[in-house]
Amino acid sequence: MGKVWPANYLVAGNVERYRKIMSTFYKRHRQMQGPLYRPEVLNLMQAEFDDNYGELEVDQDLESLVTWGNLQKQQEMIRPKSIEEYRNKNFRYQITEEGILVEEMVNQLMNTKHAARGALDEKGIRHLLTLLDAFVAEEHELAELWQEIREAFRRVGDDTANYIGYITSPDVDSRMKTAQFLVYKDKFVHYLRDFISSVQNLYHSFTVVIEKLSQIDRDKLIDQMHQKEQEVPMMDGVSRAEVEEQILGELTALKLWFIGTSDRPSEYDNLMLQTDQMITKITGLIYYFGQEIHQYQSRRKDYLHLAKWFNRAENLAEAHQMYGGIFGLDHSRHYFVSESSDATSNRQNSWELEPGTLFLSNRGRGARQERKARSFSLDHDKQRELLEVHQEQLTRHRQQIDHYFNDNVLDFSKVESLDSRSRQVFLKWISTAIATYASAHKLADDVITQMVATELDFTVDVSIHRHERIIVTCEDGNLEMPKVTMTRRLR
Fold first, then answer.
1. CA pair distance 261, 215, nearest whole angstrom
2. Which residue stretches of 49-184 are H helix?
3. Higher pLDDT, 227 or 385
4. DSSP conformation class of 292
5. Residue 378 vs residues 67, 373, 381, 391: alpha-carbon distances, Å
6. What is the C-alpha to C-alpha distance for residues 281 and 285, in angstroms, rounded to an integer?
7. Of the N and C termini of the chain, which has fewer Cβ atoms inside 10 Å?
8. Can you give the pLDDT at residue 113?
9. CA gap 479, 470 in Å, rounded
10. Closest among 52, 472, 270 to 486, alpha carbons compared
11. How much is the pLDDT for 328?
12. Pick the CATH number of 5-110 from 1.10.10, 3.30.70, 1.10.3470, 1.10.287
């Protein structure tokens, strides 16, 4: 994880000179024009960069780019005809593979507005499905098809990722919040919805063909791909182990893109989620702008209609009442009444309720009310009666709880009917078990077992099967929950 030297010239002090030289070499590489000699570089920089650019600067820049690995130099052995030719060694310079990669990166960064937006192309995904169907049906020539699959899959992944990154970028997000976006709203929504519907129709076919990929002869594919790599003569050839690692990684990537695992969703699911969220966001913005436009519409006709009402008023008092009903009161005082009203719902009309009583007291200095101590007497008979009632309720509650345990074991999947009060108690014990277990462990096990001290005179061991679902019949409906068993321990 050290410094990447080929990218050093992008942040060096003389970055303008280095970038001019490297762009020239990269342009010649794209045009297949070969290397440049030192005098040619000097003349080029003097003509296109600065007239004062001299031999000291060209030697310094070229040597720095060679040291960083962007250029490579080679001396041509010729017979010198003069002392000057002997001193000035005839070097030629050519861009390296590392320099090409850095310049391609710079070119993409400078043109990212037009190059990296991507697209949601249903044709590209359908083409990938066609290649996969042909690949699983082929028995002999696998290398050519796999190269086409590799390229099509890379294009689908890059295009979709770039487009989702583009439409979720802060720049596009800020543009969506302007009224000018309403012109493009229909195109956005139709584009995203058409893509979702078409890809969802292909999803089942993808899952079937990717499952078939696990049954292919992988050794045969690896051997053919390695043989194809050997057909291109290179000094540093690719070994079979490297080809095997790449192909196995690509097979895994294909499966993760469309199917995923239990630990992480597939890229297809993420793509559908992001696209659906964008549609929801666009429709929300459309509703917002619609409300804004409606709010700022001209109310001239409304005011003219109100003026006709006021014109028909018989006297000023009636006009005042009409004004208060339409526009509200200009001057009002509000009092808070602490006494509870007879309202049974927050939607009940206030005018239909009995008025509350507000007790006004003196204000200012000396208005503080005096508090007098009052005596009271203990009613032991009343206390004893209330205590007996409370203990009787506890006994009935304990009997209800004991009814559900069979040999100190409660299996919710075998409960025939569960009353609402006991259900609240059991759910509280389950929540306590989950919270206690999560504070000390990670919720990754299939079965969670935790001891809980209850408000009754026993403890329970709560076992929760996270991936098994059951339905418990209650007196007021059905409850869907994980499979839970409780084992009682008497104190």
1. 19
2. 55-68, 83-87, 97-110, 112-115, 122-137, 143-167, 170-176
3. 385
4. H
5. 98, 16, 9, 20
6. 6
7. N
8. 55
9. 8
10. 472
11. 80
12. 1.10.10
